[in-house]
Amino acid sequence: MSTVLSNFDTWKKFLGDRVEAAKKLGINEEAISKLAYEIGEFLDQKVDPKNDEERVLKELWDVGDEGDRKTMARLMVKLAGKNE
Question: What is the C-alpha to C-alpha distance for residues 84 and 79, in angstroms, rounded to an integer?
């Protein structure tokens, strides 16, 4: 996982691949966004940002409330979908 997180473009590609795989399994956008939120919570608590982009995302995550974080998770899913 640390290799994937060391480069933001690699992370977006990794996430995009996982989003596409989930859609092929029939998982809907809402469920994918919920999972992205849970992953964001895990990363916030357990993983130190590896680059400037991740540090900005962490700072935004930290100042946001739950609604803001859910919005960020949905946006990350959308962003990842553009990198398939």
Answer: 10
Please tell me the pTM assigned to this model: 0.79
pLDDT tens digit sequence for 1-25 = 556 566 778 878 888 888 889 989 9
User: Is residue 74 one of the residues assigned to a domain?
Assistant: yes
Contacts 24+ apart (CB under 8 A), 39-45: 39/73, 40/69, 40/72, 40/73, 40/76, 41/69
Residue 1 lies in a domain: no
